[in-house]
From TrEMBL:
SMART domains: GGDEF. Residues 315-447 form the GGDEF domain. This is Sensory box protein. One of its GO terms (molecular function) is diguanylate cyclase activity. Keywords: Membrane, Transmembrane, Transmembrane helix. The keyword Transmembrane applies. GO terms for cellular component: plasma membrane. It comes from Caloramator australicus RC3.
């Protein structure tokens, strides 16, 4: 394409200058100026045609395009006069030689810019690798991962999911970057149905440069207004898809996707897979001493330690205290074994809904507390309400009878509502009983 542009620019500039009938020197200068102008014009038109064919609206060029245009233009300015001079003095052979030199130099500069771009990406990958090693908590690793990734890929929306395809129905992101006007549930990932999960389970990076026309994925709701292009990077652990890095954006990201970014994304996927493997190994070690034997959730010791660590690190988080409604009536009517079964069922619902990095603990008796790292009260409410709805829909069979049990919850956040463990628990507990239990039960209340 470069050769065609040079040929057309040269031919047209010679044709136009021939009509001017200028003296020798002025004719050379005019030919050179026309060549440069036509050369730059053809390059700009070519880039716009590429954008239109790719289904994107017209926009300003990305920095990489401008650098390539500037490089080509400098070459054209430097050599176009030489091309004209040699054409007049040496004929066609000299013209061909300069033409070949022009092509080689331009391609050399192009390769240099590509290498410069890849070198910048490698430096960012090293920073991401350092942070994955440096930070122990998986949620923190994911947060820094997305922060550093934005310097490589200028996304508008990003999310990291971990899920169990065999057991989960949907996934909520562990870490995410979302415009303030979009609610968290816009990032729900349907694990069981839809085209998107099929693409993810292929274990290959999928890049959609036009999400609205792409039939292989499904982005719905308000989210689609922010996603002109999207990248789906499966996280594969032991040959099974265990998570996803999702990136989406508008023009700035769409332009970047015109370049070769699959290799860096593959590296990032493998790094995150290693982080998950290490985290799972760490959890396996902790489980024996810290798990409540009835519910399979963490015990009170873990709860106190986790909240204390988060407060010391000044990490924003929310807690939800759940209490089963009329649980005493279940025990009195069906017996304590039936009550244990109801608790197990509720714990199973919680484990399916919460994120893999959230902490669910048996708080005492029929109370269960969840620590939702990095979520505001409004975002925590979305998850808590989903748990309440799922449990209400559960079909619990006791001695051949189907019974319906509901749950109420209270939410409080650090540091918005409290700056210590005791005060935070009291605020959530007050919301549970004053706004939840006393006002009809089967509801979630925010402090």
């Amino acid at each position: 394409m470069f050769a065609i542009i040079v040929f057309l620019s040269g031919k047209i500039s010679n044709l136009l200058s021939s009509f001017a009938n200028l003296p020798y020197l002025e004719d050379i200068v005019l030919s050179a100026a026309l060549f440069e102008l036509l050369f730059l014009t053809f390059n700009i038109l070519l880039l716009y045609i590429e954008i239109i064919l790719d289904g994107k609206r017209l926009s300003i060029f990305k920095a990489f395009d401008l650098e390539i245009l500037l490089t080509d233009y400098i070459i054209a300015v430097t050599l176009s006069i030489s091309l004209c001079l040699i054409s007049f003095s040496s004929g066609k052979l000299g013209t061909v030689l300069i033409f070949v030199i022009l092509v080689i130099l331009s391609y050399t500069f192009y390769l240099f810019k590509r290498l410069e771009f890849k070198n910048a990406i490698i430096k960012k990958l090293l920073i991401i690798s350092e942070d994955l090693i440096k930070y122990g908590d998986l949620k923190t690793k994911c947060d820094y991962f997305l922060i550093n990734l934005k310097e490589i890929i200028p996304y508008d929306i990003a999310a990291i999911y971990f899920f169990d395809y065999k057991n989960d129905d949907f996934a909520i992101p562990i870490s995410f970057y979302l415009p303030i006007e979009l609610p968290l549930n816009e990032l729900d990932l349907n694990i069981k149905n839809g085209n998107t999960i099929k693409r993810i389970l292929d274990k290959k990076i999928y890049i959609s440069k036009n999400t609205k026309r792409d039939k292989n994925i499904s982005i719905v709701g308000e989210l689609q207004n922010w996603c002109e292009s999207a990248v789906f990077v499966p996280i594969v652990v032991e040959d099974e898809v265990k998570g996803l890095i999702f990136l989406a954006g508008r023009i700035s990201m769409s332009n970047l996707l015109l370049q070769d970014i699959e290799d860096p994304l593959n590296i990032l996927s493998k790094q995150m897979a290693l982080a998950i493997s290490n985290y799972r190994y760490f959890l396996d070690i902790k489980k024996e001493a810290e798990i409540d034997p009835l519910t399979g959730l963490y015990n009170r010791k873990v709860l106190d330690k986790e909240i204390d660590n988060l407060i010391k690190q000044n990490v924003n988080f929310s807690i939800v205290i759940f209490d089963l409604d009329d649980f005493k009536k279940v025990n009195d009517t069906y017996g304590h074994l039936a009550g244990d079964q109801v608790l197990k069922e509720f714990a199973n619902v919680i484990k399916k809904v919460i994120r893999k990095t959230d902490i669910a603990c048996r708080f005492g008796g029929e109370e269960i507390l969840i620590i939702l790292k990095g979520l505001s009260k409004e975002q925590a409410y979305i998850i808590a309400e989903r748990i309440r709805e799922k449990f209400e829909e559960s079909n619990i069979i006791i001695n051949g009878n189907s019974i319906n049990v509901t749950v109420s919850g209270g939410i409080a956040s650090y540091p918005e509502d409290a700056n210590n463990i005791k005060e935070l628990l009291n605020k959530a507990d007050a919301a549970l009983y004053i706004e939840g239990k006393s006002k009809g039960k089967n509801k979630i209340a925010i402090c």
